[in-house]
């Protein structure tokens, strides 16, 4: 089991990614609705919800510095606007299963990025990320794609990684609630501009099904999941939090099976088991994970012998400046 200090944030990340994965049904209901206008409405409603929570909790409104505003704009352009657009366009040139498998490499990207930043190979985290990614590929399977489809899927992968990496420096000073709210606010004008430039209407009168899907995506998938994700990310770091991206296809598969639109297959079961093993390997305290992986070293990933984060690796927040955040997120 993870140490008590990391269990709660790990659960937040797990729930956030499960919500995102299960939202595929809602997204499918918007397949014929204007893309940019629909996403703009989604993020506008989510921003209002998050700002209302900020006021309800009597947390002060913190004006971002120019540097923070630039990073928030980049976060919205990549992790919110960019990801949504890349995924939709990629599925027009590639099988959804292939797009999901490519995006499923997010844990590896985040683990490698952390290893490069720390200038040391986080062997256990890298191994766990590779295991989770392999499980995702088994669940999603392989599909066909043209070169443009592969490029667009790679763009979605980059945006998914940026959703965490770009946000990490903002969390210590702004907190999960403000980062989530401000990023949603920044995404709205971006999507409106894209919608005005794209052919077709910016908005349309939604059907009852489309209205329900937009409401679910805005409140649950965006407002709630973002807050959960960024709260967990601030505590356990991008590499470990990224492992939970492997839960997206698992949740999507479980939802499809529950609705009767997809059947249980051996490769999906094997992929789910492999994903779970990768999560266990990445989240166990160092000593237990070393035994599981057949390694003798129990000091990886910044943990001490008891599985607690070392002081210098404990969180992304500076010890001398606690984060003024609401709570402990995907999209």
From TrEMBL:
Keywords: Membrane, Transmembrane, Transmembrane helix
Domain of life: Bacteria
Principal subcellular localization: membrane
Composition-biased stretches (Basic and acidic residues): 296-315
Positions of region (Disordered): 295-331
Signal peptide: none
Family per record: Belongs to the EamA transporter family.
UniProt-recorded name of the protein: DMT family transporter
């Amino acid at each position: 089991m993870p140490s008590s200090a990391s269990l709660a944030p790990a659960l937040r990340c797990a729930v956030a990614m499960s919500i995102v994965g299960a939202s595929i049904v809602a997204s499918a209901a918007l397949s014929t609705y204007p893309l940019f206008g629909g996403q703009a409405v989604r993020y506008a409603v989510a921003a209002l919800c998050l700002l209302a929570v900020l006021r309800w909790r009597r947390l002060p409104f913190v004006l971002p510095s120019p540097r923070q505003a630039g990073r928030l704009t980049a976060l919205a352009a990549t992790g919110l606007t960019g990801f949504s657009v890349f995924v939709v366009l990629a599925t027009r040139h590639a099988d959804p299963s292939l797009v999901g498998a490519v995006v499923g490499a997010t844990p590896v990207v985040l683990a490698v990025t952390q290893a490069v930043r720390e200038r040391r190979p986080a062997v256990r985290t890298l191994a766990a990320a590779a295991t989770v990614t392999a499980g995702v590929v088994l669940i999603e399977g392989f599909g066909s794609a043209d070169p443009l489809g592969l490029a667009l899927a790679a763009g979605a992968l980059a945006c998914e990684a940026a959703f965490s990496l770009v946000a990490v420096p903002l969390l210590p000073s702004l907190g999960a609630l403000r980062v989530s709210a401000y990023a949603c606010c920044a995404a709205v004008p971006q999507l409106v501009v894209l919608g005005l430039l794209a052919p077709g209407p910016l908005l349309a009168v939604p059907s009852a099904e489309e209205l329900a899907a937009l409401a679910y995506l805005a409140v649950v998938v965006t407002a709630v999941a973002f807050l959960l994700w960024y709260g967990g990310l601030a505590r356990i770091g991008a590499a470990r939090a990224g492992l939970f991206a492997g839960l997206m296809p698992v949740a999507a598969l479980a939802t499809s099976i529950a609705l009767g639109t997809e059947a249980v297959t051996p490769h999906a079961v094997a992929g789910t088991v492999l994903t779970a093993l990768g999560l266990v390997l990445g989240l166990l305290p160092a000593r237990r994970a070393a035994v599981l992986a057949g390694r003798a070293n129990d000091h990886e990933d910044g943990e001490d012998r008891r599985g607690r984060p070392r002081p210098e690796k404990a969180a992304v927040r500076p010890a001398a400046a606690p984060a003024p955040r609401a709570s402990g997120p995907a999209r």
